[in-house]
Amino acid sequence: MDSQPKRKPNAREIAARIRGEIAAGTFGPGDRLPGGRAYAKKLGVSLMTVQNAYTQLREEGLVEGVSGSGTYVRDTAPGEPGPREAAQRLTDLQAEVARVSTELAGLVERVQRLEAVVGPTEGKASG
């Protein structure tokens, strides 16, 4: 039995979840996203957290807010990638950034181990 309380998602994680749903086709062009208050209650987070997630998606060009009506998946102009393709590209890009970050962390660790063995070279005078 799991005694740990379930961690509540932050705005970035909520945006990633919705971005994934757009990429998967769960939400298509013109579809309305869940209302902020109801979605916040469902996730156990504040309304502000959901609003911040929706703002992030708006800044990415995936959704648009319609005053008094809600937040909708953006319909694109002819020739533009649709929201599904754009969301998939963003998801792929995030995965690549995570991969590169992991590799970079490994390189930093290796350099630190080498410096521990060789000693720092910076600041040593020659001759």
Automatic annotation (TrEMBL):
SUPFAM superfamilies membership: Winged helix' DNA-binding domain
PROSITE patterns: HTH_GNTR (PS50949)
Positions in coiled-coil regions: 90-117
Domain of life: Bacteria
HTH gntR-type domain boundaries: 8-76
Presence of keyword DNA repair: no
Pfam families: GntR (PF00392)
Source organism per UniProt: Streptomyces gottesmaniae
Protein known as: GntR family transcriptional regulator
InterPro entries listed in its UniProt record: HTH_trans_reg/aminotransferase (IPR051446), Tscrpt_reg_HTH_GntR (IPR000524), WH-like_DNA-bd_sf (IPR036388), WH_DNA-bd_sf (IPR036390)
Keywords annotated in UniProt: Coiled coil, DNA-binding, Pyridoxal phosphate, Transcription, Transcription regulation
TM segment ranges: none
